[in-house]
Design goal:
The protein is α+β, with helices and mostly antiparallel strands and about 210 residues long. The protein has one domain. About 30% of the residues lie in helices and about 10% in strands. It is built from five helices and six strands. The strands form two sheets. It has a four-stranded mixed sheet with strand order 1-4-5-6. A two-stranded antiparallel sheet has the order 2-3. Strand 4 and strand 5 form a beta hairpin.
């Protein structure tokens, strides 16, 4: 269900222009200028799975690529952008300058309808981490009809200096979603401007 065969017959998703992208294609130039191709799996250029994925079925190869392709589409539609680099957050996985940053995924060992996603920021003091992971959670779960999972659980890698607080917030969002069936929308972090704004206003304080 979660391998190449599922994704090969997946209906082409309806695309909606993201007002933060300025009409740019986030796929343009991949494979050139320091970026890997979206359609290739380069394990040396993405983070190692962390503690949140330990003991679960980590996506590798075509399975990782297939879900990350969908991720790029959903992030573009919902405007989940890295304000520092000015690109769709999914591109961080392709950026060879930051081989230890980005997302890794694993199918939950106890429930194959649940996907775990662990975000590794570029630095331990990344001021955008709060907005980016909340935006990711809302994109994946708010558009859950576009992938094979009923729930995508999101956590920040423990290397971030405020990972404990950030992950507690993500757990609350997850609990609200499980209880109500609706993705919480308050303090939404989408688009580069919103990500920067939320990073400034949140109780998670940046050293910058």
């Amino acid at each position: 269900m979660f391998g190449t065969s599922y994704w090969g017959i997946r209906a082409v998703a309806r695309r909606t222009m993201n007002p933060f992208s300025g009409g740019r294609s986030t796929a343009t130039g991949d494979g050139e200028g320091g970026f890997d191709q979206l359609t290739t799996f380069e394990p040396a250029h993405i983070p190692e799975p962390g503690s949140f994925l330990e003991g679960h079925d980590v996506l590798e190869g075509d399975d990782h690529v297939a879900f990350h392709e969908v991720t790029q589409e959903l992030f573009e539609e919902r405007g989940v952008y890295d304000a520092t680099f000015g690109y769709n957050l999914a591109r961080l996985n392709l950026d060879r300058r930051h081989p230890d940053a980005g997302y890794r995924y694993a199918v939950d060992a106890d429930d194959p309808t649940v996907l775990r996603a662990e975000f590794s920021p570029t630095t331990e003091f990344c001021p955008q981490a709060d907005a980016l992971v909340k935006g990711s959670f809302r994109a994946w779960n708010g558009l859950s009809d576009r992938h094979a999972y009923e729930l995508v659980r999101v956590r920040v890698r423990s290397t971030h200096h405020q990972s404990e607080h950030l992950n507690e917030t993500l757990e609350r969002l997850e609990s609200q979603y499980r209880e109500s069936g609706e993705v919480p929308t308050e303090s939404a972090g989408s688009g580069p401007g919103a990500a920067r704004q939320e990073g400034d206003e949140t109780t998670v304080h940046s050293p910058f």
